[in-house]
Structures are given as structure tokens and as C-alpha cells.
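Long-time lurker, finally posting.

We've been working with diguanylate cyclase (Sphingobium cloacae) and I want a structural starting point before designing mutants. I don't trust myself to interpret raw outputs, so I'm hoping someone here can both generate the C-alpha cells and explain anything notable. Sequence follows.
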Amino acid sequence: MRSSSRLLALCAPLLTGGVYFLVSALSLTMSRFEGGIAFIWGANAFLMAELLTSQRAHWLRAIMACALASAISTALFGMGPVAAIPMMLLNVAESAAVAAICRRYAPGRNIMLSLVPLGVFVAALCGVNGLVGVGSALVASNLTPVSFGQSWLQWCAGHILGGLVCTPVLIMLMQGEWVRWFQAASRRIRMETLGLLFLLGATAWYIFQQDHYPLLFVPLLPLVLISFRAGHHGAAASMVVLATVGGASFVLSDGYLSKIAVSPGAKTQFFQIYLAFSFFLSLPVAAELNGRRRLFQMLRDSEARYRIIAEHCGDMVLNLGVDGRIHYASPSVLEQVGCAPELLIGQLGADLIHRKDRALMTAACRRALERPQDIHRVEFRLFRAVDDLEWHEMVARAVVDEQGEATGIVCTIRDMTRHKARQQALQQAASHDSLTGAASRSAFLERLETEIGRIKGDIRSCVLLLDLDHFKSVNDCHGHAAGDRVLGAFVERLKPGLRGRDCVGRLGGEEFAILLTDLDIRQASAVCERLRRMVADEPVHLDTGQSVTVTFSAGLVELDGVSDAAAMLEAADKALYR
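Top reply, 14 upvotes:
Generated this for you. Predicted structure of diguanylate cyclase:
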């Protein structure tokens, strides 16, 4: 295994350099019509495809192999040994820079899949060659009779057009996309694509062979048709067919291209420009169609998941228009609302909401339309709610179009009745003492703070602090269970002497407090005396058959509306000890 890996690592750069040498040598041999820079250059397209389809760790060996191949081909078939090193540097710099830009701004993307990576590739190819071409033109203008401007133009035309036509095709070939497409496509699609490619080849052959009419636009029709039917795979294949047929006609010096009264170099540039226009007609269309095809597949998958969730979930799912009317209602509406889903279509969603909560629901929908990127929640009661525990929660988010404008709202509505009941039970447990049923210390202090804030003008309220007398002896003589029974019975004996708006709380141990609202100190003192008699006159009967008479000491203060709850309790405590 290790020896085979070493052999593969050694053969890979040799193969890469060999292919680069053959392509560059062929280009230099056949297209240096004026003795300067080659008019056709596909070797760098091969190196760019190699870099874009391989890991960065393998870039150096590929670049070194192609650099050596470039130097040898330039020395043997190009401008000679003097130009070998500078042209080598320019060639590998172009390929490496374009590949690096594509990896940086379109990472992990095939440049054929959508317009963004394709646009990045075209911009990088044109920009880099515009700069690198300056160096190549300086070399060529000093070593050959070709001028600087003409050399720069030949470099840009040959390298840009060669990269545009060859790189996408080579990337797909190296990644095995054509093989995967052929295996995945149905037999009908394969036969249809092959037929269209044959039609394109036959049409292109006839157009290039005849010399009577300028019909080079005719192959563009099957070219676009293949792009629509077979996507970027067919578009790339059609470029290969068009380049092969046109190139063969050009080499044979027969047909329409041979009749153009210009130099061979100009004819070559004309043919490359023709292929470039065909590229810009077919491949961007195919990339856009491919993006839309993937988007359609994603939408179809999303729609399938949405349907499964909507039709088999206990939560209600509603689609509302911008006017608030229902466009879709899930089957669970029948169970939750008691109405068939189809009968709700066209009705206002607010009609399902309790009249007291419709403003909340309308405001939530309005916020969803104004901020479509956010998720909005609101709790409300349905129109058929019979008590305050029958609550539902709506989660809403806007549906947007391609411009980001809201076109409707998707809502999921969940029954929160059990949650509300649990929440209320937890609140009840947190706000009441489990042993006596009196308010807990925190709940009583909160109520006291609220009452202090209410005190103003003629409003008077008092706080009464109670401490059971000799409670420790009850625990010592009768046990803690008896003590617990005494505490519970004590609160029960207090309640008949209190009004509904009064509040009794257990502060800890045998210490209690009572908030007497809307009573001054004189009235509260009378209430305290009445409570004392009620408690003392009714002993607590224990399970042992014994009875315990309960008395308490009390401290009473009137709320001043300034001091906080802790200060008021401290004042009541001092009054109790007095």
C-alpha cells in the first residue's frame, strides 16, 4: 500500500507536466503565426482545472511540473531558451492566481453550478491576464518583431479565450461529472442529449463548410436548447463539439473561415471570440438553470416536509395573506376549533381569536409583515375559550418573495392550556406556604410593597405581625406533627375574621403577618382584638385526644407610604415586643 502510494505521488506530477507539455507544444507549433506569442493557449486552462479540483497540499508539485514543462516547450518550440524562464513564471503565475482567487471567493464550488462562481472565474481570468499580459508583451516585443500592443493582445486573447472555453470542460472531466451524469440520467434524457449534440455537430459542420452565407449564428439555437435540456453538462459538451468541429474546419482550411481575407492569426482570434460568445450564451444560462433546478428541488423537499408536519401534527398550521385572511388550514383545526379546514379558507384569522385578544394577534401579524426575518410569538385565547386557562400560543413568520417583500404569514398555533395550568400550579406553590396555605414570605413581601406604593392621601392600611405564644412547648410536649397541625389550624381560625382583600402570610416558623388594607390603626386594632378572641376561644384538637389553646402576641403599625416592606415589618416587630 505504501509503495503504491509513493508511486502514485511520483506519477501524478509527471502526468500533469506531460499533459501540459503536449498541449503547450501543440499550441506553439500550430498557432505562432507571426513568430511571437501563440494565438491559441489551452495549457494554462489545464493547470487551472488541475488546481481547482485538487487539494492545496498538491498545488506545489503540480505547479513545479507545469513550470518545467512550460520552460522546455518555450525553449524548444517558442521564443527560445532566453524566454523560457520569464514565460514559465508568467504562465504559472496566471494559473495559480486565478485558482487562488476562485478558491478564496467561491470556495468549494464548481464554477459551472451557479452564476456567482462562474462570474468570479471570468473576472479573475480577465483581470489576471490583463496584468500578466504586460510582462509577456515586454518579453515578446524584445525578442520578436511583434509590437508590445499586438503581443499583449495576442496573450490576452489566447489565454482568456482558452481559459473560458477549456477550463470548465476540464473541471467537469477531472471531477467525473459527465460519468456521474450519464449514470444518473434516465435513458430518455441520455438519448435526447446525444441526439441534440449530434444535431449541433451536424449543423456546425455544415455551417463551417459552406462559404456562401454568414450563418455562424445558426448553431446557437441547438446550443441553447442543449443548455435548457441537459444543464451545464450538456452545455459543456456542446462547447467541446463546437470547438472540435470548428477547429477541424479551420485546420483543413476549408469552408467559411478560409474565405475570410485576414491573416491566420486574425482568423484564429475570430474563431476564439466566436467560441467565447457561445460560451457566454450557453454556460451562464446553464448555470442559472442549474441554480434554479437545485432551488426547485429544495423547495419541493421543503414542501414535502411541510406537508407531513402540517397534516400529521397536533398543532394548527395556518397560512395567512397580507390581509389576514386564511389561505390554508391544517387538518388539526378540526380538533382544535371544531370546524372543517376547508370552511376557514377566505375567513379572517382574527375571527378565531377571543375578542379580548384579537388586538394582540393583529399586532403580532403586523410585526411579522414589518420584520419578515424575525419570529414573532403571542399568546391568546380562542373564540370558544370558556375560562382564563384555555390559552394558545402562536408562532408566526412572514413568507417573502425574491425581492424580500412579505407576501403572507405562516403560523403554528399550539394549545397551551395544560402548560398554563401547570404554570398556575407552580405559581400557587411558590406563592403559598405548603403547610398552612398562607402566603409565602416572598409573596407577602411583594404584596406589602405593592400596598405601600398605593398609600397616598386618605388611603390607610396596616400590617399586623403575629407570633404564637409558647409554640416551642407544643413541639416539645406533643411532637412536631402536633406543632404542624397547630400552625395550620391557626391560619384556618384567622380566615373567618379577615376580608377577601386582606392577606395573611407565614414569615417563618410560628411568625405570621397580616396585611389589613383600607383600615387605619384604630380599625386595625379592633380587628386584631377580634382575631385574638377567635383563636383563643377555639382550642386545637390533636389526634391524641388532647387540646391545645392557641394565643398570640401582635405588633401593629400603620403604613406610611415611604418606608419599604422590611422597615414596616421591623417596626411591627418592635411593636410586638413592646
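Before you design anything, note these points.
The two ends are 97 Å apart (CA to CA).
The first strand starts at residue 316 and ends at 321.
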